[in-house]
Amino acid sequence: MADIISDFPDSVLCYILSFLPTKQVVATSSLSKRWKLLWRSVPSLDFEFQNNEIVSHLLSDVLRRSSSLEHIHLQMGWFTAVPSVVFICKTLVVLKLDTSLLENISFVDLPLLKILHLYSLILVHCDLLQQCLSGCLNVEDLEVKCVGYITREKFHSFPKLVRAKIDSCSVPLEIVKNVEFLVTDRIYKEDLVCEFQNLVQLEFATLECSEGWLHVLEVFRHCPKLQTLVICIEGNEEESVLPYPLTVPTCISLHLKTCCLKYYRGSAFEFQFAEYIMLNANYSQIMKFRIRRYEYKNLMRRQNMIRDLSSCSKTSDTCTQSFEKTI
């Protein structure tokens, strides 16, 4: 049988290899002399070696030699530092670091980087996150979770950022104020120092209390174009029903189309919030309730919640309700 693959140019072979796990890509180096170093030219590398210094040195060597690397996903472990050369790879478009250690980063220059995801990182110095972000000003998709608390004064904004998924204690919301899509754990009062003029989709959590109710409304006032809302209302205590505010934020009355309540328990606060949205969202299309597992398994409680919610008045004639179990 003819060896058709060997007739392909290196560029085609590298493109094919880019769809394989890096371990399998490296294994092709034993096929022949031609394949021995070919894997080093693959534009995508995915390393999941925990605390392995040998792999770290190998990765450093590959990065120094490569002129076409575009995608890196690393899980190095918390005892092996991500090679500093990663942060000066000027061809990188995607960088994802997970469960890794950052130290001794002297310079960051990633001018082509569009996607940056940072998860569960240990930072040897408190300013390393700020240092990493400062060299990635063209990022369009940013995710930062579990990387520790960083001071808010040192960050640069991202003028091209479209999507952000962040811990508010790690990254101040002010630097992502231009995004269209935002997922965060909390939005604090001190975060509302700017307007989110481009924001059309927001996901966050708030507390079940009178201050939480007023705070949520204040958040809406800072998101004038919001169309999709995913919210989790946390708390265990039942509070008395609060009076509805006299004013309605513009995004609710003119733009909101989809609202989803995550981990819905059927508390008085949650019910009042849902009722408020349905009464004031003139262009609402979908009102979704992701019911918490405990309540969903209780058939009678679930049916009572659905009955009460279904009886709520809706301003929008096109608004439909959906009910599902939280995954």
Automatic annotation (TrEMBL):
Residues 2-52 form the F-box domain. SMART domains: FBOX (SM00256). It comes from the Eukaryota. Pfam families: F-box (PF00646), FBD (PF08387). InterPro entries: F-box-like_dom_sf, F-box_AtFBL13-like, F-box_dom, FBD, FBL13/AtMIF1-like, LRR_dom_sf. PANTHER family: EMB|CAB62440.1-RELATED, F-BOX/RNI SUPERFAMILY PROTEIN-RELATED. This is F-box domain-containing protein. It comes from Phaseolus vulgaris (Kidney bean). The lineage of its organism: Eukaryota, Viridiplantae, Streptophyta, Embryophyta, Tracheophyta.
